[in-house]
Structure formats: C-alpha cells, structure tokens
Amino acid sequence: MTSHPAPQEQAGSRENVALGLGVLAAVLFAVAMAVAGEDDSSYGWLWPLAGVTGGAAAVTAWRSGSPRPHGKALIGLVLGGLVFLAILAWIVVAAFTGDL
Known about the structure:
Elements: H1 7-36, H2 46-64, H3 72-97
Helix pairs in contact: 1-2, 1-3, 2-3
C-alpha cells in the first residue's frame, strides 16, 4: 500500500516547483530578449516557451496556496505572471497595430 504525502508536504513541493518555473520563465525571457529580439531568427521559439513557462509558474503558484500563495510560491507567481503578461500584452498590441 502506498502512502500519500501530507497536504503541507505537497504544498511545499508545489511552492518549489512554482519558484523554479518562475525563475526559468524569467531567464528564458531575458535570453529571448538578448538572443532572439524582435526579428525572425532561428531562436524565435524562445518567446512562446517563456510565455508558457510563465503561465505554468503562475498557475502552479496559485494552486499551492490556500487561499493565496505565500513565500516561494508568491515569488514564483510574480515572476511567472510578469513574464506571461508581458508577452501577452506584446501579442495584443502587435495584433491591434498589425505588426504580427
């Protein structure tokens, strides 16, 4: 018979995952800014990867807290959410200005 982790252990693990994803999203965003830029280069795949990673960090962080994230999860939420929202805002502005 397998034992299931306690809810606090599971929340702590989610906090660590959220923090790791948030840091990874921020690093991917910085690398995409430096390497890919706005031109169509072979590194253009970094932008969607950073956005998806940021969204995953935000969702994981939000789900780790009850009723709201604390500590490491909050840092992951802020980092991931900022990356996700920055890329989403760029897509919306580019769509309205016809710059896609």
